[in-house]
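Our consortium's second objective concerns turning raw sequence data into structural hypotheses that experimental partners can test. To show how far this objective has progressed, the report includes one record in full. It was chosen at random from the queue rather than selected for favorable results. The single chain below, 223 residues long, was entered without modification.
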Amino acid sequence: MSGFSWSDPPNPTAFAVARAGYPFIFASVFTTAVFALLQMSVPALMGLAVTFCICCFFRDPDRVIPNYPGAVVSPADGKVVFAGPVDNSRFVEGSCIKISIFMSVFNVHVNRVPHEGQVKAVNYYPGKFFSANLDKASKDNEHNAIFVETEEGKTICTVQIAGLIARRIICNVQKGDDVARGRRFGLICFGSRLDVYLPADTTLNVSVGDRVKAGTSVLGNLI
């Protein structure tokens, strides 16, 4: 496909599930099987429904990634709840562009790298668990910040933020890793938010209310 590429090898199955979801799925399947063996029809049917919902939540579809120079792709599926300039955030000194993406429980929750480069730092911060669609979630909630430096020396910060229900942040990259645009790097369980901080001169391609998809939607272009 012209202008696009695979950042990760395609999944070998038609309905791929993120590995982090296996314990939840196995637990639900086991509980459902116990109810079925005990001939408890209603709990068994409810267990089937819960198992299906968990599988859907942890789905991990393949994505083709735009490979245009300077393109910054969305790290998450969801709705843009903030997009614009900010000054002196806790992650970036001076002016920058901030984009916040809220993920409901219905969105794919696998996170992807916005732009290729080298991971310069991964900083975890314990915190609270306010609803992720609130502005104060960026400041007060438990979160994990990943700083990537591009070949041109620009820094992009992606912050995984826990939500009201989300109580587990998964990050699979470490300081010193070379990462590709659109590569899977983590996941947040059960509803959450991601903030992306870009250089102030970035051309912004999204606005509040837009729906974006991880790896395929272009949030902006580095100059």
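The partners drew two points from this record. Residues 68-221 form a domain with the Glucose Permease (Domain IIA) fold (CATH 2.70.70.10). Residues 143 and 161 are 4 Å apart (CA to CA). Both points have been shared with the crystallography group to help prioritize constructs.
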